[in-house]
Amino acid sequence: MVKSLNAGKHVFVEKPLALTNSELNEIEIAYNNNNGKLMVGFNRRFSPFSLEAKKIISNSKIPINIVLTMNAGFIPSEHWVHDPEIGGGRIIGEACHMIDLATFFIGSKIIKVTANGISTSSDNVSILLHYANGSNAVVNYFSNGSKAYSKERIEIFSQNKTIIIDNFKRSEYYGYKSSGMSKSQDKGHAFQFKQFMESVALGTSSPIPFHELLNTSRAAIAAVDSLKSNTWINI
User: Fold this and answer.
1) pTM of the model
2) What are the structural domain ranges in the chain?
């Protein structure tokens, strides 16, 4: 990735952006020293369910609370995704989707992170994100739930109103004029590529600001550090 950026290329990378803060530092230098676009596959923010919810809450200046749950399912400990040098573990490699989505809704910077789990393993953990604008998000990443339950569920609480997104198939609005929407599952994969390719062709800004990519990535790494140290980590 760094070589591609230094060669002036536009880069689309699947999550995660990096596995360590030192890698992120190298990417930041390469990005700032060149003109290529950088995009990470945080597709959930491009889902029509996410875009509709964002439109509804975007005018609010009051801090909000969000609970984002991934009923991720069990993966054997010997699987490559658990290897910190290859997959980075499930927080860095997968829960980062929910961290990015929380930031998309909240529209602010994560300033500190803490995490608590059943053990120091990242398979069953709750991550608390505190934002500069006073908002909070809880990311629950669990591998011990039933497969019959929704894999992903988002709950947004603000001004005595609530939005629920269930598995990117259905949304429910409480306290709003709209009651929500229902359609085939759409996690935003196609639209993210469309937006990125259009930004390259038209020379417009990348769909996800670089500072958000960095902030999400550093927050995911901080969550792993917090799980081990049992402390808040400043971003």
Assistant:
1) 0.94
2) 42-188+215-234
Q: Six-digit token pair at 142?
A: 């669990």
Enumerate residues 6+ apart whose C-beta is below 8 A from 128: 113, 114, 115, 136, 137, 138
| pLDDT category of residue 120 using cuts at 50, 70 and 90 | low
Question: Which helix (DSSP H) or strand (DSSP E) does residue 157 occupy?
Answer: strand 152-158
pLDDT digits (tens, 9 = 90+) for 205-222: 999 999 999 999 999 999
**Cross-strand partners of 166:** 153, 170
CATH number for the region 42-188+215-234 comes to 3.30.360.10
Q: Is 65 helix (H, G, I), strand (E, B) or coil?
A: strand
Environment class of 160 (CB within 10 Å of its CB; exposed 0-12, middle 13-18, buried 19+): exposed
